[in-house]
Amino acid sequence: MAERTSDVRERLRLPADALRWRCDPALFAFETTSDLQPEEIIVGQERAVRALDFGLTITQPAYNIFVTGPVGSGRTTYTRKKVTDLAVARPTPPDWVYVYNFQQPDQPVAITLPSGLGDRFRRDMEELVEELKDGIRKVLASEHFAARRSEALRSYEARINEIWQTLEAEARGLGFGLERSPVGVVPVAIGPSGEPLAPEVIDRLAPEQREALQERARALQADIGDALRQVRNLEREARDALRTLEGDAVASVAQRAVEPLKERYAAHPRVVAYLEALVRDVVEHRDDFKEEEEGARLPFPMPPGAVRRGDSFARYRVNLLVDNSQTTGAPVVFETNPTYYNLIGKVEYRGEFGAFVTDFTMIKPGALHRANGGFLVLQLNDILTAPLSWEALKRALKGREIRIENIGEQLGLIPSATLRPEPVPLSAKVIIIGSALLYHLLYVLDDDFRKLFKIKADFDVDMKRSEETLQHYARAICTICRRDGLLPFHRDAVARILEYSARLAEDQEKLSARFNEVTELVYEGSAWAQQDGSKAVRAGHVEKALEEKVFRSSRSEERIREAIQRGQLLVDIDGAKVGQVNGLAVHVLGDYAFGRPNRITARTFVGSRGVVNIEREAQLSGRIHTKGVYILSAYLGGRYAQDRPLSLSATLTFEQSYDEVEGDSASSTELYTLLSDLAGAPIDQGIAVTGSVNQRGEIQPIGGVNEKVEGFYYVCKAIGLTGRQGVLIPHQNVRNLMLREEVVDAVRQGRFHLWAVRTVDEGLQILAGIPAGEPDAERRYPEGTLNGRVAKRLEELAERLRRFSPMRPREDGATTEPVPAQTPEEGQR
Question: What CATH number does the domain containing 698 carry?
Answer without folding.
Answer: 3.30.230.10
